[in-house]
Structure formats: C-alpha cells, structure tokens
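User: tokens in, sequence out, please.
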C-alpha cells in the first residue's frame, strides 16, 4: 500500500489543505459546548435575552465557518483522491501492458479486472476518507477531552478512562478484520472468474446442457463469498454497539457525578451540559472513526493486492536494437533469412512438458510459410515466438540474422502484422478498428487493406461504408467478416512479417484463395506465416512446416511432404480423398 502513495506527490497541496481545513472545522466545533454553557449559565440563569441572542449569532457564525471549512476540505480531499486513483489506474494499466503472456496467463484476467476496478475504487475511497477524517476524528476525541479538563478536572477523568477502552475496541476489531477482508476479496476474484467463464462460454454450456452444473458451481462460490462477508460483517458490526455502550455508560456516570456536584455547587448546569456535549461529540467521532477504519482496512487490503501486481517484474527485458539498424546491418542480403528458428524449445510456465521441441527452419524474405498440424500440435505456440509473446526455453529465434532478444519490443512488433485465432473487434467504426493497426492510416491505405483482405465488398455494402458502427466484439458481423477485418487491421501497417494464425477458418475456399493471392501480390512482399488446419490454405506455400505434438514431423513443399511425410499425408487425405487428389 505504501508504494501507491507516491501517486499523491502531485497533490501535496490538496493533501495538506484537506486535513487542515477539517481540523479548523473541528476546532470551531469544540467551541460550541462552551458557548452553550455560557447561554445556560449567564443568559438563561440571568434572563439576559440580548446576551442569549448574541450567543446565538456566535453559534450561527461558528456553524457557517465550519460549513465553509468542511466544503473546502471536501473539495481538496476529493481532488486528491480522484487524482490518486487516476494515477494508480494509469500506472497499473501501463504495468499490465508490460507483462508477458506467461505472466498474464498466470495472474488471470479476472484478477486484473478486479484490481483495475473495485480494488482501485476502494483505495480511492480510503484516501478520500483518510484526508477528511483521519486527523479530524482523533483531534475531536482528544480535543474534547482537553476541553473537558478546562471545564472541570474531576469530571474529565471519566474521559481519561473512556477513551482508552474505546481505542482498544476500535483497533482490536480493526486488527481482526483486516485479514478477513483480504479473504473476501479473494473470494470475489473467484466469483468474477466464474462469471466471466460462464458469459464467455455460454453457448458451449447450453450446447452440452451444463446450465444446472454451472449454476450450482456459481451458487457455491457466491455462497462462500456471502458467508465470508457476513462473518467479517458481524465482527465489524460489533464496533458500533460496543462503542455506544461504553460511551453511554460514561454519559450515565457523567450525569450522576455531575448532578451530585451541581447539587453541592461545584459545577454549574451549563458546565454539565458542556461535558455531555463533549462526550456526545466523542461518541459521534468514534463512530465515524470506526467506519473510517473499516474502509481503511479494506483499502489497505486492496492496495496491497494492487501493489502485488505492480511488484511483478516482467521476465522479458526489451532489447535496444531498432528494426532499421538490423536491416542495415544485414544489408538486406538474400543470404540472411527473415526468420530463423535454431533448435527452439518452448515450455509454458508451470507446464509439465514442452509445447515445442527442437524446432529448426529458415524463412527467406518474401516467402510464404505454411504451418499445419492437428489441434494442440503447437502451431500457435510456434508463431507466438516470432513477435516475442513468449521466449524460447532453449535455442534461439533470429530475425534478419539477429537474436530476437536484441530487438526493442515496440520496434519489433511495429513491423509484424499479427492476426490472432480469435477475431477481436472493438466498439467503433470499421475505419477506427482498422486504425488500431496504424493510427495515422489514411482512407486510401484503409481501402487498400480492405481490398487485399477481401473485405471491401461487404464493407461497401454496409450503411456508411467504413463509417459503419461495429458493436462490441463485432456482434453485428459474421465470423468471416470479422476475420477479414482483423486481417485488414494487420495489413494496413504494411508489415515486413505477416502472421495469420488460423485467421481464415471462417472463409470459404474461394475467398481464402483470393486472399492468399492478394497477399502474395503485395508490393511490400512480406514474409507470410499461414497457420491452418486446412491443407488447401497452405499447399501453395513455399515451405510447409508439419507439427505433431510439438515436434516437427516434416518440412518442405506440398509435393515433397505428400511423398514422404506420413503426418502430412494423413491430414491431406482426410480432407481430400485420394481419388479427388489424384485428379487435381
């Protein structure tokens, strides 16, 4: 939590003025019982109406000054807390962008969403309340005790006994509830994860009639969260009744002792009323302090969880080599391959076995490389190494003859066009979605990318053309349309290396063929990697890599593999019967 407070450095003035004005408000509030005592002992006792009116104006003035101080303090506290929350969000988001795919997989999306939303909101509320009440409430409590001594020393001893008892109750409950609130937040993470899984996989759940099972699983997780919240709520709920009991007990003792001393003439009636007011102020402030501590306890727990994410050090370090420097060093010579895998092995973090084993190949500039294999063969794992989403456990990946670890990550990925398996589109126009690939892309560049990706025809048919509004996730587009737009988004940056990770699976054979033909005809002549389970998508590639359970089962042209690679033969003839293949 301490590491997050650095985001308050730009709000030092607000962080000082907020508690300062709150203490001024509290100071004026402490004078109110003394004025009331004067009204009773002087104005009412002597029937001095002008004096009573003057004192009433004093009370109104104290109230107005306190109100101005309170509003000012609230303004500064809100400004500081909002700025603090904004700073933490930016820092957390920026840090998450630096995390590798392995770390993102390990932490989990639901956890990161919780950190970015409810945890930061909780911490922001905690900062707001601390700036307003953390100094005010103790100041009122101890200030009221000191003012009680100015009224009567013997009666004030009741305050000396009461305040430590209240402090033990408040801080004892705080120490008990702090770890319990951490558990509540962990249970909330699990519920959010289940909710996200159910919403993402709702079609599969319905298809396999698993609604009841998922409902039971969700209810179990939700019940665990409910039980944890109720348990910590019961403990926190003890604070108010216990503090009320102690304070009201002290008030009874104060009234009893005050009545006896008024009777013998040691105290005036106004002074007893002032002491009661001070005790009531202590009660109100301790209730506020109790609620503050509950909020701060939650905020600290949430802040520590945010800090835990910020303390994660990305296991990949960006190099310093720029793309232009690598090209210049290689001299764009034909003998230097665009991409080279040298005995590469990949193992995901926490996995028990390698996902890729001893992969070696060269992809020359301008070549089209097909990657084919069954489900789980490691096709996506292979191409994810090229933009350095993961680092190889052994061996090396080279681009233009230089180890990929030497490259500046931003410079590397700016020259690679990546089309993921899952077509992800964002809410906005078609043009805005395409410009995710190149922020300053002109309309002409977007139209060119749409033509190459075979998307121009359906885009022109949409109302507004490139200004057609895409819904979140592309819900108002078909699977094939979404795939073509994601391909156009990768093409608009005119990449040196284009990776299409099974991104044409929803296209018919004719459109797929036209797409590959258009890409091959690009004047930039990129090196293309086509990942597919369809033999027709890769059979015209310059090289085809056949993967089987993470190992390279074969590499070569379509004809070569068809002659000597059993794994490729099995895939090809399962899609094209031998008779049909012979007639091609």
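Assistant: Sequence out:
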């Amino acid at each position: 939590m301490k590491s997050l407070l650095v985001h308050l450095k730009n709000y030092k003035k607000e962080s000082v003025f907020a508690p300062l004005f709150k203490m001024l408000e509290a100071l004026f509030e402490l004078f109110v019982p003394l004025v009331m005592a004067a009204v009773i002992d002087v104005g009412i006792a002597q029937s001095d109406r002008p004096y009573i009116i003057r004192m009433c104006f004093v009370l109104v003035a104290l109230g107005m000054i306190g109100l101005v101080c309170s509003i000012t303090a609230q303004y500064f506290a809100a400004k500081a807390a909002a700025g603090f929350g904004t700073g933490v969000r930016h820092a957390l988001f920026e840090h998450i962008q630096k995390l590798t795919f392995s770390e993102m997989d390990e932490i989990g999306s639901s956890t990161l969403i919780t950190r970015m939303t409810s945890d930061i909101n909780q911490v922001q509320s905690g900062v707001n309340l601390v700036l307003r009440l953390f100094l005010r409430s103790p100041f009122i409590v101890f200030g009221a005790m000191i003012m009680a001594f100015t009224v009567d020393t013997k009666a004030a001893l009741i305050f000396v006994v009461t305040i430590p008892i209240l402090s033990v109750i408040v801080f004892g409950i705080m120490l008990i509830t702090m770890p319990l609130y951490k558990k509540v937040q962990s249970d909330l993470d699990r519920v959010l994860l289940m909710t996200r899984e159910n919403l993402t996989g709702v079609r599969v759940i319905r298809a396999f009639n698993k609604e009841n099972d998922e409902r039971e699983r969700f209810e179990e997780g939700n019940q665990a969260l409910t039980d944890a919240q109720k348990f910590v709520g019961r403990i926190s709920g003890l604070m108010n009744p216990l503090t009320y009991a102690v304070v009201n007990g002290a008030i009874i003792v104060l009234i009893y002792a005050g009545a006896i001393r008024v009777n013998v003439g040691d105290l005036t009636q106004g002074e007893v009323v002032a002491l009661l007011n001070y005790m009531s102020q202590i009660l109100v402030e301790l209730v506020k302090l109790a609620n503050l501590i509950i909020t701060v306890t939650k905020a600290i727990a949430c802040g520590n969880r945010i800090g835990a994410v910020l303390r994660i050090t990305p296991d990949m370090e960006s190099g310093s080599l720029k793309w232009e420097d690598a090209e210049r060093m290689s001299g764009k010579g034909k003998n230097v391959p665009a991409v080279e895998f040298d005995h590469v092995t990949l193992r995901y973090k926490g996995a028990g076995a390698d996902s890729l084993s001893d992969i070696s190949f060269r992809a020359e500039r301008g070549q089209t490389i097909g990657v084919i294999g069954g489900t789980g063969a490691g096709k996506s794992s292979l191409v994810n190494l090229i933009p350095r989403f993961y680092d190889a456990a052994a061996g090396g990946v080279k681009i233009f003859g230089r180890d990929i670890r030497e490259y500046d990550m931003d410079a590397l990925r700016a020259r690679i066009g990546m089309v993921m398996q899952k077509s992800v589109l964002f809410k906005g126009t078609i043009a805005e979605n395409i410009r995710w690939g190149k922020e300053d892309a002109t309309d002409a560049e977007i139209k060119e990318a749409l033509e190459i990706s075979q998307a121009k025809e359906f885009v022109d048919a949409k109302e507004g053309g490139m200004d057609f509004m895409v819904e979140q996730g592309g819900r108002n587009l078909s699977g094939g349309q979404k795939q073509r737009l994601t391909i156009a988004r990768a093409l608009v940056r005119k990449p040196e290396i284009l990776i299409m990770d099974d991104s044409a699976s929803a296209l018919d054979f004719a459109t797929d063929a036209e797409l590959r033909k258009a890409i091959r005809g690009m004047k930039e002549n990129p090196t293309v990697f086509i990942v597919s389970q369809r033999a027709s998508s890769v059979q015209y590639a310059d090289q085809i890599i056949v993967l089987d359970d993470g190992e390279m089962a074969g590499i070569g042209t379509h004809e070569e593999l068809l002659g000597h690679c059993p794994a490729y033969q099995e895939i090809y003839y399962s899609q094209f019967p031998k008779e049909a293949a012979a007639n091609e």
